[in-house]
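batch_manifest entry 22 of 60
target: LysR family transcriptional regulator
source organism: Megasphaera hominis
requested by: lab member K.T.
priority: normal
notes from requester: please return tokens only, no post-processing; we will run our own comparison against the previous entry in this batch. if the run fails, retry once and flag.
--- input ---
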Amino acid sequence: MEIRVLRYFVEIAKEGNMTRAAKNLHVSQSALSKQMKELEDELERPLFTRTKSGLSLTEAGALLHKRAEDILNMVDKTTDEFASLDTVRGGNIRIGCAESYLIKYLARTIKEFRKTYPLFHFHVSNGDTEQLEERLDKGLLDFAVIVEPPDSTKYKYLAFPGTDRWGLVMRKDHPLAKKEHITLADLSNIDLICSTQGIKGDLPAWSNDKSHKLRFIGTGDQIFNSAVSVREGLGCLLTFEYLANTSEESGLVFRPLEPPLEVKMYIIWKKVQTFTPIADQFRKKLIETYGPEPEDTGEEPTKEP
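--- output ---
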């Protein structure tokens, strides 16, 4: 199984069309079709099915697509690492981030860092804590920014200043919009949308394990999409302050939870990790800005009360 063929496969999956994929890859359609046939023969599984709208992935194709993306990301990351071994003038780092207003601190650090290393480039991807830790463990990321206390047995970490505050996003005409704060009792009889991580992590502790009694009608890990749903009258959204647009024109408002629920944000990296020169300089910049690193006590950091 060649890297080149995996790139061909991923491009076809993205386009859903052999002709467009061949054009993007600058190869003939017949050559591309032959490569895919040979790949299917090698795996002894069909990877695509034909539909009216084009090509769609089979179950085997979907599995290969997930694996191929990880493999190609690792290949590209390794190529970048070797390209930057002899210089710290620039290079690439990959950072996975949870959604948070506190990302502003990461942006400020990158902006300051690029004054010294103008050829430095960053690549940010999104995910929840579980997804980001998995990609970090696989070596697909250099750093991850998470909103749960890190496992200090596996990761080094630094905390960004400030906290994220939980609250309820709702339409301006919602009865609870008249309140200054939202209690557990207020939430008991309304339709709610929340991230999967929030439902499993922060809310049970805040509610004294009573959050399972709340009426969650759905989950949403993309706050923009969830806020659009709320604007259309599909429930209310439990999320961090500042993530959803609650400007005057938006038709939405944010009200904080009572008692307050606040969480910190951490940037983490593996304890046993070989950094490229540019990534190591960025790590040092983080420690200089937000350090020192906590002492290794083997205990996880505590959440904000």
